[in-house]
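Reviewers of the previous submission asked for a worked example of the structure-prediction workflow described in the proposal, so we include one complete record here. The input consisted solely of the amino acid sequence. No template or homolog information was supplied to the procedure at any stage.
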Amino acid sequence: MKYGSLVFEESEFLMIKKYHENNVSIEDYAHKNVLEMLCQNMPGALCLNTEDIPYDIITLNAVIEVSGASGIRQTFQIVAPNKENIEQNRISVISSLGALVIGRSVGDTISYGLPGDLITLKITKVYQPNSANGKTTEKIKTRKEKMY
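From that input alone, the workflow returned the following structure tokens.
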């Protein structure tokens, strides 16, 4: 990992912990297990204010592009569970893929899929939502986005 650990915005960190504590609504054990693995990694995570989150970190509502060795390239958005919409490439933060990428950054790799059928994906781009890092100016946002 580029930053040595996962990086979260404070409110998102608390939201994910809340989802984990209230996981009675998660019927799919694969999602529950991924969320538990994510929560095991959270004690060592960096927890920052919104304005301090680097622009290459995957946060809630960020649009992410990943690529694989086989030439696969996919773009999707990480959203809250109630806003998930597969047809619109909106992936829940508590889905297997969402939990694997949240808090990671450009250049990080993940292994995704079922045991015996895992693929390695590299995070190639992260587009932060317009509301992210609201205390920065447009000029700084543009300069930072171009750096990654």
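The chain is about 30% helix and 25% strand. We consider this example representative of the routine output the project will generate in years two and three.
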